[in-house]
Amino acid sequence: xxxxxxxxxADAGTLFNRAKQYTEEKLGHAEKTELDAHFENLLQRxxxxxxxxxxxxxxxxxxxxxxxxxxxxxFFYDKLDKKLDRKTNTEFxxxxxxxxxxxxxxxxxxxxxxIKCGQTEQKLGQAERDxxxxxxxxxLQPLKAFLDGDMKTVQKERKILETKRLDLDAAKARLRxxxxxxxxxxxxxxxxxxxxxxxxxxxxxxxxxxxxxxDLRVAQAEFDRQAEITKLLLExxxxxxxxxxxxxxxxxxxQQTYYAQCQQYMGDLQRQLGSYGxxxxxxxxxxxxxxxxxxxxxxxxxxxPAPDQILNHNDESKRRAKVLYDYDAANMSELTLxxxxxxxxxxxxxxxxxxxxxxxxxxGKVPITYLExxx
Length: 375
What we know:
The protein is an alpha+beta fold. The chain folds into 2 domains: 13-235, Up-down Bundle (Substrate Binding Domain Of Dnak, Chain:A, Domain 2), CATH 1.20.1270.60; 307-373, Roll (SH3 type barrels), CATH 2.30.30. 60% of the residues lie in helices and 9% in strands. It has 8 helices and 7 strands. The strands form 2 sheets. A 5-stranded antiparallel beta sheet has the order 6-5-4-3-7, with no helix packed on it. Strands 1-2 form a two-stranded antiparallel ribbon. A hairpin with a 6-residue loop joins strand 4 (342-347) and strand 5 (354-359). The termini are far apart.
């Protein structure tokens, strides 16, 4: 019991000395052990790395999941080691388009177009989910692991180093006070040194000075040891930067793959839609206003040629063509196509977007973008 009390009293005394030293430093009444310039640079780099990693992580999460409620839900599922699997908004849109197209009838132009759009939206949603999964595994998780692991260890060792520094500076202050007080003593009271050689006599001043010097040596050794440990951890930040650079490359590659897939899917959809809505007129025959984008020039859908432009030609002018996509005729002057079938086509004078297609005894206009001319 007595040993526990002595340990408690010693710990309380150490905490008091640290608090006193810290307060005097803030007030400018005590000297502070300064670290070398290289060590200070390592500390500053560690602080910048932690601050910017936290900010990049937070903003990346906001980009990948803009909904803060959904982010919070994913956070709790992650803490519970459970996987939250849900559709993206793009996939929900695709489901609604497909259901609407089936409701209107897949044989109608509008219904067929809705189904095609819905299927493309589902592909886009799946590509988005792949991108989110890849970004989370290859970019976000390494950043989180660094902040929760290595950086917390660095912060912990830095706090220990700060306490060791306070102990060192407090020991230096005690030694200075002991020497200063000894110089002002007008008398020396001789005492027998408890553990010294028999007959050896020390003064009160010498005993206090020797004790302070011993404490200083212990504090200096502990500080030097902790400084070396902290320095090694801080120098490891360089390897962390190299690892984060590789993670950044993975994130950029995943993002590039995602946008490339989106461009491919939308390009295929645009070719499949062909002349749907090509007249640019809405209900009541009014023309929809065009929206210009300085980055992308406006594109116009092919306009069907006038009936008097459709002429009959002999078989020598016909060419064989392969159908790339299904196409539903919008009116009686067009011909319905099935993907991968072989038909014969001939040019329509005055039109570069449409050709006249022939299948046995059937014929009708079709968009040239749906075909691959074979000869």
